[in-house]
Design a protein that fits this description.
The chain has one domain. About 20% of the residues lie in helices and about 40% in strands. It has 2 helices and 9 strands; from the N terminus they run αββαβββββββ. The chain has helices spanning about 1-25, 75-85, and strands spanning about 25-35, 65-70, 85-100, 110, 115-125, 130-135, 145-150, 155-160, 165-174. The protein is elongated.
Length: about 170
């Protein structure tokens, strides 16, 4: 009888450990570059919108769900963009964060030091990884906004395009 209790207790412990591992979140290194496209000529007009950033996480402040990290993978890409007369890098930052389900995900604030870019990026996992960007180029009366959500894969570079700005995003599992 003692053997039966021991086997049940041991099985319960194993199941609890397996359950804990299944619920543990995978952490990722995120690197984001946002740049302005300088030599674009378009007759598009963007409506004037009020922009409220609802992003509780900041890549510069360490917490339970985010840790600052050094820019690593896209340094040369950012340097090439900055050297070009067609682009101006406004934001280049890296951080580490877990990617959770859509209902549990939290947005990360994206703000350039000079205030020219404001917005957020949110990552979530359903069957696949997803990234949702909401970025606004602060340009006086007309402030173009890039809003896009798409399925992504880790270790791949993604380009988000807008007539006045662009973003490069890469996530890598830790």
């Amino acid at each position: 009888m003692k053997t039966t209790y021991f086997i049940r207790f041991f099985s319960l412990i194993i199941l609890c450990l397996l359950s804990f591992q299944a619920h543990a979140q995978q952490w990722y290194h995120v690197e984001l570059i946002v740049f302005e496209q300088l030599n674009t000529y378009t007759d598009e007009a963007w409506p004037q919108t009020s922009f409220d950033i609802n992003a509780p996480l900041s890549p510069s402040v360490s917490g339970k769900l985010i840790h600052p990290a050094k820019n690593s993978t896209l340094i040369q890409t950012a340097a090439r963009l900055q050297k070009s007369r067609d682009y101006r890098v406004l934001y280049h930052r890296s951080w580490q964060q877990p990617i959770m389900t859509k209902s549990n995900s939290r947005a990360v604030s994206v703000q350039s030091p000079d205030g020219s870019i404001k917005g957020s990026v949110r990552f979530f996992k359903s069957t696949y990884l997803h990234a949702a960007l909401d970025l606004q180029l602060m340009q006086g009366a007309q402030s173009p906004r890039l809003i896009e959500s798409r399925r992504i894969r880790s270790k791949k570079l993604y380009f988000y395009d807008h007539p006045k700005m662009g973003a490069l995003l890469q996530i890598t599992p830790l």
